[in-house]
């Protein structure tokens, strides 16, 4: 294997493909043979070791560390063959630097998620030895001021607190700030100079995290790409939602991005895909014999994707009002999870294989019909002495807004596995609970011998698999069970796995996983352009109709269980929402 | 429906307050309703409903029905009739219930424990009867008689019994009072087990207590096998109920092999009908064994997996952490295979592997179980490993060997441990090894069923597991004792940035979910016998089929004087069990690092 690898990585870089990349992975899985290490004498290799090592020092055997590493080099090679030559021809760890530029560094997301995630990766030793973090924004700030700002949001993982302050100090020393306009090539050129200075002439890989409003996406990408691309390593850009407002705007955005970047440089982030239980979904399906036979219309009656927040826009409704809950949650997060859930078994766990299967699911779906959607908007509500504002009470929201803050929808996949199975989605703000979960309701038992024990409500007797993504990650399977005692009374009890009970380790934030994957070039959890297209194609007609007809949302009180319309929608498809059933 | 759930029977049970759930009656009603249209015309029902107004409580309705015909009549059709009637005549049910209250003291149940001074009686039977009484599951009028050879007064029996009675943890109120009431219904009669005269005297005493009510009599034979027949004969001839039912519960051993078992059955049949004989196997009364059918047949997700296509092997494991401890006399002439495997484990296996029965009726279930047993190959010597425990010193404590037991002969080769591989040659289970393991003086006390599933074909995560794909299979574990639990081992991603898999459990620990104490198996079985529910008792043809699987190998072991493999007291048993498992490509699930 090493023999195959070494020539390919040193010379024929233009022919490198995912297949060779698979070899590399295998190579690493096979106990990191030394040969392999030498063959790949890029700086990344030792990093890989350290990543896996620090993840599970005692489990080298069973870990395949599969979203691997070395990949990043090869993928980069596809877009910039020249740069790819460098690591092989210039071995030596000290000579490669990773720089991460957070564009929009003074924003909320940067402060709350991106910097803390970078620090967590640093703390857990997942970042390469030479890395720098640049904040870029319009605000005037010194490096010191940026560091102060960041330091307030950094935390150390619960499971190992030692050296936290030291580590923080070390991390902050690698953080710099550059002030500039998002649309100014000059300012990005200055950033480039600073980056070069810090990189000190070594091979440089650059990751830009665009945490800026959608209207300046393209400008920022253009400037960064033209003026601050790495000359010797890879350049990648992480972009955040929204990826357009509909099929046309999304396609336009993609087209613009493609002017400056190639497909494999674009990392569209959907942080729901980085959640632990979403990652686990494929593991559950494909590594357990007991689930796969059940995963079809033969056994599954319906699937529910539920997202609820227990707060409203709270004075930040400006952006939201322009998009609404369907674009904000359903068309991306929930639909992505649906695609992962419903896809056929991929040829391998490679990013392209998985994304191919996801696209197939999306393309097999019928575009949403208006009659299969319910929209809602929360209104003010007083409980006890406390009063909660309505959506339109938010000063950043126009008084006559009909933007939905709640939506429920029924989707269908017209393929042989899922024909006729309703996939229900529900997402809302200002509801009674904060929760995200996937519920799989199984069919009733045909000819159930015990049906008399259930009275007439056979619905109650069906099995249900629940994956709770947040809060309190858990998997449980509702089964029918005899109540202990002399009688024969049945009861739905849970076979369950509560993560907090089994795994004491804190679960990493989704952003950590996704940032690390972007650094390593693992694209499995990022959204490809054709996926995005297919996703919009499902929702665009509906969204247009909602807006053109100015469909008034059903109002529901802040903190309630949402509009009752959702129940009627479910009933129409012979479904009962699993989360509002009384017993969860 | 409404009348059923408000049945006065077991009135204090919490289940009864819930109108749409509940109890055995339902099952009968269900299945009966399906039989009803073919067998009986509606006219019969209305007729019956007038003549038998008190047919609500199951245990009574049998008696009531039998009373009109003949005490030793096969009562199943009658019961079906009366049960079916319940289902049909719903508008009249309430009136009947009212009438019933007035007439309820017209019938009575007497439970005679033959061998009342024995261990089983003291530790299990009397406490179980009390628990049933405490829970309101016994009919209002009942009598408990102790019968044994020792001379004792009623008061002495009561003192003896009272020592072992306990109140259920979940409701301690009135425990003292209830105990007092119960003990007042307990009487003693001293007599020989083979004396018709003594049973005749018992009959008089019983009649006295029954005071002219319709009398139903249950005899619990808790006596050594050699006096079974005599006692049955005497009880049947001299102490049968004159106008109600008479049933006899017999305990294992049911013979030593096919021939002796057949002879025993034949002898019993001279005095009793098949439906009067209740062969008890207390493992079938265990909560999780009862739950096995519920799991299989009321969950969509298990049934598709329940075949050779998905199940790699099934393991039935029984272990005790103590030896014979000075009571090896009986055991030594039977051995672990007869004592545990041929009955308890084989019964569980049959329940596990049977096809879906037509209904939950006793005969339907037992028909399916017999089919499983008859589809099995008789056990071969090659497929059996036997062991015997030897002494072991750990620190300062020293544990005796089996042959150190004074009641065991020094050169005994009786197995105290056995492992066996069995096969069911039908279309569902062809080629799937069913492994059994039972032993005394092992490192822990446990009884469980383990279902190991096949590996995932073309597993995408192959590499994640290194080379040991075996590690990656799912496993369903039903732990019968201790700490009742059900768990399913699944592969799961270890939370974190890597992609490392882990076998974790989807689990249901009974103690965590159900605070109510789980009733002892004997309670359930006694109640079933009183109610005439035969589902958990062993029919003669089942017993025959079970013996025919084990008899040849038992004979061979004894004729060839096969020496058991010795294992230290408190160990994990002889290693031979692993080699047996390995031969069929199985790994014992209970001895892995993770369980």
TrEMBL record, chain A:
<keyword id="KW-0313">Glucose metabolism</keyword>
<dbReference type="InterPro" id="IPR019796">
    <property type="entry name" value="G6P_DH_AS"/>
</dbReference>
<keyword id="KW-0521">NADP</keyword>
<feature type="domain" description="Glucose-6-phosphate dehydrogenase C-terminal">
    <location>
        <begin position="283"/>
        <end position="577"/>
    </location>
</feature>
<dbReference type="InterPro" id="IPR022675">
    <property type="entry name" value="G6P_DH_C"/>
</dbReference>
<dbReference type="InterPro" id="IPR036291">
    <property type="entry name" value="NAD(P)-bd_dom_sf"/>
</dbReference>
<protein>
    <recommendedName>
        <fullName>Glucose-6-phosphate 1-dehydrogenase</fullName>
        <ecNumber>1.1.1.49</ecNumber>
    </recommendedName>
</protein>
<dbReference type="GO" id="GO:0004345">
    <property type="term" value="F:glucose-6-phosphate dehydrogenase activity"/>
</dbReference>
<dbReference type="GO" id="GO:0009570">
    <property type="term" value="C:chloroplast stroma"/>
</dbReference>
<dbReference type="InterPro" id="IPR001282">
    <property type="entry name" value="G6P_DH"/>
</dbReference>
<comment type="pathway">
    <text>Carbohydrate degradation; pentose phosphate pathway; D-ribulose 5-phosphate from D-glucose 6-phosphate (oxidative stage): step 1/3.</text>
</comment>
<comment type="similarity">
    <text>Belongs to the glucose-6-phosphate dehydrogenase family.</text>
</comment>
<dbReference type="InterPro" id="IPR022674">
    <property type="entry name" value="G6P_DH_NAD-bd"/>
</dbReference>
<dbReference type="GO" id="GO:0050661">
    <property type="term" value="F:NADP binding"/>
</dbReference>
<dbReference type="Pfam" id="PF00479">
    <property type="entry name" value="G6PD_N"/>
</dbReference>
<keyword id="KW-0560">Oxidoreductase</keyword>
<dbReference type="GO" id="GO:0006006">
    <property type="term" value="P:glucose metabolic process"/>
</dbReference>
<dbReference type="GO" id="GO:0009051">
    <property type="term" value="P:pentose-phosphate shunt, oxidative branch"/>
</dbReference>
<comment type="function">
    <text>Catalyzes the rate-limiting step of the oxidative pentose-phosphate pathway, which represents a route for the dissimilation of carbohydrates besides glycolysis. The main function of this enzyme is to provide reducing power (NADPH) and pentose phosphates for fatty acid and nucleic acid synthesis which are involved in membrane synthesis and cell division.</text>
</comment>
<dbReference type="Pfam" id="PF02781">
    <property type="entry name" value="G6PD_C"/>
</dbReference>
<feature type="domain" description="Glucose-6-phosphate dehydrogenase NAD-binding">
    <location>
        <begin position="102"/>
        <end position="280"/>
    </location>
</feature>
<keyword id="KW-0119">Carbohydrate metabolism</keyword>
UniProtKB/TrEMBL annotation, chain B:
<dbReference type="GO" id="GO:0050661">
    <property type="term" value="F:NADP binding"/>
</dbReference>
<protein>
    <recommendedName>
        <fullName>Glucose-6-phosphate 1-dehydrogenase</fullName>
        <ecNumber>1.1.1.49</ecNumber>
    </recommendedName>
</protein>
<keyword id="KW-0313">Glucose metabolism</keyword>
<dbReference type="InterPro" id="IPR019796">
    <property type="entry name" value="G6P_DH_AS"/>
</dbReference>
<dbReference type="GO" id="GO:0009570">
    <property type="term" value="C:chloroplast stroma"/>
</dbReference>
<keyword id="KW-0521">NADP</keyword>
<comment type="similarity">
    <text>Belongs to the glucose-6-phosphate dehydrogenase family.</text>
</comment>
<dbReference type="InterPro" id="IPR022675">
    <property type="entry name" value="G6P_DH_C"/>
</dbReference>
<dbReference type="GO" id="GO:0006006">
    <property type="term" value="P:glucose metabolic process"/>
</dbReference>
<dbReference type="InterPro" id="IPR022674">
    <property type="entry name" value="G6P_DH_NAD-bd"/>
</dbReference>
<dbReference type="InterPro" id="IPR001282">
    <property type="entry name" value="G6P_DH"/>
</dbReference>
<feature type="domain" description="Glucose-6-phosphate dehydrogenase C-terminal">
    <location>
        <begin position="294"/>
        <end position="588"/>
    </location>
</feature>
<feature type="domain" description="Glucose-6-phosphate dehydrogenase NAD-binding">
    <location>
        <begin position="113"/>
        <end position="291"/>
    </location>
</feature>
<dbReference type="GO" id="GO:0004345">
    <property type="term" value="F:glucose-6-phosphate dehydrogenase activity"/>
</dbReference>
<keyword id="KW-0119">Carbohydrate metabolism</keyword>
<dbReference type="GO" id="GO:0009051">
    <property type="term" value="P:pentose-phosphate shunt, oxidative branch"/>
</dbReference>
<dbReference type="InterPro" id="IPR036291">
    <property type="entry name" value="NAD(P)-bd_dom_sf"/>
</dbReference>
<keyword id="KW-0560">Oxidoreductase</keyword>
<comment type="pathway">
    <text>Carbohydrate degradation; pentose phosphate pathway; D-ribulose 5-phosphate from D-glucose 6-phosphate (oxidative stage): step 1/3.</text>
</comment>
<comment type="function">
    <text>Catalyzes the rate-limiting step of the oxidative pentose-phosphate pathway, which represents a route for the dissimilation of carbohydrates besides glycolysis. The main function of this enzyme is to provide reducing power (NADPH) and pentose phosphates for fatty acid and nucleic acid synthesis which are involved in membrane synthesis and cell division.</text>
</comment>
<dbReference type="Pfam" id="PF02781">
    <property type="entry name" value="G6PD_C"/>
</dbReference>
<dbReference type="Pfam" id="PF00479">
    <property type="entry name" value="G6PD_N"/>
</dbReference>
């Amino acid at each position: 294997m090493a023999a195959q690898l070494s020539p390919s990585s040193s010379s024929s870089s233009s022919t490198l493909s995912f297949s060779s990349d698979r070899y590399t992975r295998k190579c690493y899985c096979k106990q990191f043979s030394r040969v392999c290490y030498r063959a790949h004498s890029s700086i990344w290799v030792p990093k890989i070791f350290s990543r896996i090592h620090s993840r599970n020092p005692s489990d080298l055997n069973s870990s395949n560390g599969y979203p691997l590493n070395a990949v990043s080099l090869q993928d980069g090679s596809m877009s910039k063959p020249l740069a790819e030559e460098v690591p092989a021809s210039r071995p030596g760890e000290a000579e490669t630097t990773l720089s991460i530029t957070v564009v929009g560094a003074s924003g909320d997301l940067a402060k709350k998620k991106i910097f803390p995630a970078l620090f967590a990766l640093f703390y857990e030793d997942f970042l390469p030895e030479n890395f720098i973090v640049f904040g870029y924004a319009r605000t005037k700030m010194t490096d010191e001021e940026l560091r102060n700002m960041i330091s307030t949001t950094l935390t150390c993982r619960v499971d190992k607190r030692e050296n936290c302050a030291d580590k923080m100090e070390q991390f902050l020393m690698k953080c710099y700030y550059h002030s500039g306009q998002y649309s100014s090539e000059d300012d990005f050129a200055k950033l480039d100079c600073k980056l070069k200075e810090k990189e000190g002439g070594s091979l440089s890989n650059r990751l830009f995290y665009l945490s800026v409003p959608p209207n300046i996406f393209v400008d920022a990408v253009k400037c960064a790409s033209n003026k601050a691309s790495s000359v010797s390593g890879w350049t990648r850009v992480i972009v955040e939602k929204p990826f357009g407002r509909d099929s046309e705007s999304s396609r336009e955005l993609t087209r613009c991005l493609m002017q400056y970047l190639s497909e494999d440089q674009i990392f569209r982030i959907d942080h729901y895909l980085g959640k632990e239980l979403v990652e686990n979904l494929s593991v559950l399906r494909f590594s357990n014999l007991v689930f796969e036979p059940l995963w079809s219309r033969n056994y599954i009656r319906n699937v529910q994707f539920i997202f609820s927040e227990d707060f409203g826009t709270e004075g930040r409704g400006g952006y939201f009002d322009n998009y609404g809950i369907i674009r904000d949650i359903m068309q991306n997060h929930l639909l992505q999870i649906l695609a992962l859930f419903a896809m056929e078994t991929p040829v391998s766990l490679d990013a392209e294989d998985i994304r191919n299967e996801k696209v197939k699911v999306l393309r097999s779906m019928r575009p949403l019909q208006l009659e299969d959607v319910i929209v809602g908007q929360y209104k003010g509500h007083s409980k006890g002495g406390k009063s909660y504002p309505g959506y339109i009470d938010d000063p950043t929201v126009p008084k006559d807004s009909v933007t939905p803050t709640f939506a429920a929808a029924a989707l269908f996949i017209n393929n042989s596995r899922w024909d006729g199975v309703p996939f229900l989605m529900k997402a809302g703000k200002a509801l009674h609970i904060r929760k995200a979960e996937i519920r799989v309701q199984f069919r009733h038992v045909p000819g159930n011998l015990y049906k008399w024990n259930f009275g007439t409500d056979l619905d109650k007797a069906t099995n249900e698999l629940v994956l709770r993504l947040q809060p309190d990650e858990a998997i449980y399977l509702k089964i029918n069970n005899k109540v202990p005692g002399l009688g024969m009374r049945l009861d739905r009890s849970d076979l369950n796995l509560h993560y907090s009970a089994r795994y004491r380790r804190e679960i990493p934030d989704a952003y950590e996983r996704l940032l690390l994957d972007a650094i390593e070039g693992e694209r499995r959890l990022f959204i490809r352009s054709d996926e995005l297209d297919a996703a919009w194609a499902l929702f665009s007609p509906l969204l247009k109709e909602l807006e053109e007809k100015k469909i008034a949302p059903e109002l529901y009180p802040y903190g309630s269980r949402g509009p009752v319309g959702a129940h009627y929608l479910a009933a129409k498809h012979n479904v009962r929402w699993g989360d509002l059933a009384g017993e969860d | 429906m409404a009348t059923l759930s408000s049945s006065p029977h077991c009135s204090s049970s919490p289940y009864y307050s819930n109108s749409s759930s509940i109890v055995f009656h339902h099952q009968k009603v269900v299945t009966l309703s399906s039989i009803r249209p073919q067998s009986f015309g509606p006219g019969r029902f209305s007729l019956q409903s007038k003549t038998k107004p008190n047919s609500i409580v199951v245990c009574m309705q049998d008696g009531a029905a039998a009373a009109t015909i003949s005490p030793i009549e096969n009562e199943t059709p009658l019961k079906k009739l009366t049960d079916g009637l319940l289902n049909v005549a719903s508008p009249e049910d309430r009136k009947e219930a009212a009438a019933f209250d007035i007439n309820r003291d017209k019938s009575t149940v007497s439970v005679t424990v033959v061998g009342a001074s024995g261990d089983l009686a003291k530790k299990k039977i009397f406490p179980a009867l009390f628990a049933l009484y405490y829970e309101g599951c016994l009919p209002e009028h009942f009598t408990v008689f102790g019968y044994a050879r020792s001379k004792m007064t009623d008061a002495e029996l009561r003192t003896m019994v009272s020592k072992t009675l306990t109140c259920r943890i979940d409701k301690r109120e009135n425990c003292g009072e209830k105990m007092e009431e119960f003990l007042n219904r307990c009487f003693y009669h001293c007599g020989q087990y083979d004396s018709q005269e003594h049973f005749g005297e018992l009959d008089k005493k019983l009649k006295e207590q029954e005071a002219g009510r319709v009398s139903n009599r249950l005899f619990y034979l808790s006596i050594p096998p050699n006096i079974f027949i005599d006692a049955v004969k005497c009880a049947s001839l001299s102490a049968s109920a004159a106008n109600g039912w008479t049933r006899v519960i017999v305990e294992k051993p049911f013979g030593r092999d096919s021939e002796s078992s057949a002879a025993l059955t034949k002898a019993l049949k001279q005095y009793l009908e098949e439906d009067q004989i209740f062969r008890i196997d207390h493992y079938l009364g265990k909560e999780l064994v009862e739950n096995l059918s519920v799991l299989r047949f009321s969950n969509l997700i298990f049934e598709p997996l329940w075949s050779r296509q998905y199940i790699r092997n099934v393991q039935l494991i029984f272990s005790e952490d103590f030896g014979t401890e000075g009571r090896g006399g009986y055991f030594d002439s039977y051995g672990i295979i007869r004592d545990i495997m041929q009955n308890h484990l084989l019964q569980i296996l049959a329940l596990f592997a049977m096809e879906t029965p037509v209904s939950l009726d006793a005969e339907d279930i037992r028909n399916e179980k017999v089919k499983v047993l008859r589809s099995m190959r008789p056990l071969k010597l090659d497929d059996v490993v036997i062991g015997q425990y030897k002494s072991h010193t750990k620190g300062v404590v020293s544990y005796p060997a089996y042959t150190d037991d004074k009641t065991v002969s020094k050169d005994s080769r009786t197995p105290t441990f056995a492992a066996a591989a069995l096969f069911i040659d039908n279309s569902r289970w062809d080629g799937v090894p069913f492994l059994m393991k039972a032993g005394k003086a092992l490192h822990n006390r446990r009884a469980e069923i383990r279902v190991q599933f096949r590996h995932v074909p073309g597993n995408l995560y192959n590499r994640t597991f290194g080379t040991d794909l075996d590690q990656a299979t799912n496993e369903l574990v039903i732990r019968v004792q201790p700490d009742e639990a059900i768990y399913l081992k699944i592969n799961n991603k270890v939370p974190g940035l890597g992609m490392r898999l882990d076998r974790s459990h989807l689990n249901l620990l009974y103690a965590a979910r159900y605070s109510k104490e789980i009733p002892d198996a004997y309670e359930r079985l006694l109640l079933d016998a009183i109610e005439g529910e035969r589902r958990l008792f062993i029919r003669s043809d089942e017993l025959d089929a079970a013996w025919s699987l084990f008899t040849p190998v038992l004979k061979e072991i004894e004729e060839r004087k096969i020496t058991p493999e010795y294992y230290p007291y408190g160990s994990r048993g002889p290693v031979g069990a692993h080699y047996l498992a390995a031969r069929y490509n199985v790994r014992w699930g209970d001895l892995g690092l993770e369980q």
